[in-house]
Amino acid sequence: MDRIDWLINTLKQQYQQKESPDVLLQTINQLQSALTAAGAGKTQHLGTAKIAVMMPVSGAAPVVLQQEPPLAKEQVITESLVDATPSINDRIVTPVPVLADRLRQEPIRELKKAIGINDRFLLLEELFGGDEKKFDQAIKTLDGFSILAEASFWIEKEIKAKPGYSKDSPAARLLDQLVSRRFS
Questions:
Q1: Neighbours of 21 (CB within 10 A)
Q2: Domain boundaries, the chain
Q3: What angle separates helix 132-144 from helix 170-182, to the nearest 10 degrees?
Q4: N or C, which terminus of the chain has less Cβ within 10 Å?
Q5: pTM: predicted TM-score of the whole model, two decimal places
Q6: pLDDT greater at residue 81 or residue 163
Q7: Predicted confidence band of residue 138 (pLDDT cuts 50, 70, 90)
Q8: Is 135:124 a contact under the CB 8 Å cutoff?
């Protein structure tokens, strides 16, 4: 440590005497060699042979030799790219409709035939408490109506009025979608 102290003091003196950068750099290189030699036995390995991490000596502050000024030009370029208008491709290309979206909007002739097995199970469990007879009767009743207003009124009185009904549940939204498609 005596050599390190001596090199630090020498570097301070050279700096105060305004020595040339080459002389200062030579002293810094000697100081770096001395620090590397002093800390050579203190390498700590953290769990793997592929990665070795040199832990700093406690209380030592990192030395910053030169700090680069912020690059204002790069920031301006980046901001201009982020705020850019849509590309020509984005303006020309029209979105291709997905078949599943089109099929979800197709009118339905009979609710019973339009409800798939997964949807049937969802509606049956959430809205009818697992009672198949009530579910089948409700679907037959809804299929029997001729206008949306009748069907909506019946749903309000018979299904939505029951305790535990949540208008935001997936089953409630599915039923509303199916009934609107039925009468569209």
A1: 8
A2: 2-40, 99-182
A3: 30
A4: N
A5: 0.45
A6: 163
A7: very high
A8: yes
